[in-house]
């Protein structure tokens, strides 16, 4: 059976306030064309369909059109909710949509109930593990602790228990939205760490023929059977070097995997350029970036006059301007934003405590209080998003 694995559409998202809905629409056109061109038997969408729990109407309409086109193509689609989605909203009407071959899996309780697909060699059980917020699903799944590894382990125990009661020829696919150890993050994924830990080991998915992952925006192979498709578009300049693709996966009759990448359309490339303002304006080697979305980092010792206006004369699509003046010794003077880049909420809070105490950071008890506070805020946000449907 041939699967087209994609994820992290983030419908409704913008890039530095530039709307991307037209580019997202072009990607969905490409998705439908790729299904037909490569004769895919099913589509796997591993979460973060929307960029936020209450998406704009235009994003909902785009999603609705995509579902109709997938149904018209007659290709089964299995889709889970991610940490950016409201699982309850995305799952509305799932029972009816299921009849059209669009299988939405947003309820954690259904982790062990697969969508059954079949080919000439038998059944393929597709299990959907939506994003599992540990504090909210721990009791429902019977997990030992409220952290990611425990709840995903509990969900996978249900998957393996269901598989054990099926014929030995049944092949298996799991869709999951998680941060798996070994994956390379970017700046555009929302932090999902609980208690300071956000990742889970790849071995947690043992016993499954293929794991279609979502959450990280770069296309990655964790193991032969565990892969991220990545997002179809770049959603931050940290993704400027990404090759945006989907996985085309052939699942053999013996459970073997053959996978190749299908490139996604690039509406406008991203470029990161660095130097003094005069260098950026005069360097002929930078001509290739005239039509790119540009992030410019200025290294001038003093801030030049009207840098954005002058840059946009040469690079009309400059979206981000960063100042990193270089010291006399050649080292950069990092801005506050630069110092925080790539750091989690817990690390930032601990550094702040050390700053206001003159260098004395929090002790273990205080770290635990901070972890509990951050975990509680995230759970409260998730609960409010779910409750909002009653408003």
From TrEMBL:
Pfam families reported for this sequence: Metallophos, SbcD_C
Gene3D superfamilies: 3.60.21.10
The organism of origin for this protein: Streptomyces yaizuensis
Domain Calcineurin-like phosphoesterase positions: 1-218
Name this polypeptide is given: Nuclease SbcCD subunit D
NCBIfam families recorded: sbcd (TIGR00619)
Record-stated family: Belongs to the SbcD family.
Annotated ranges, domain Nuclease SbcCD subunit D C-terminal: 267-355
General function of this protein: SbcCD cleaves DNA hairpin structures. These structures can inhibit DNA replication and are intermediates in certain DNA recombination reactions. The complex acts as a 3'->5' double strand exonuclease that can open hairpins. It also has a 5' single-strand endonuclease activity.
GO molecular function: exonuclease activity
Complex formation: Heterodimer of SbcC and SbcD.
Keyword terms of this UniProt record: DNA recombination, DNA replication, Endonuclease, Exonuclease, Hydrolase, Nuclease
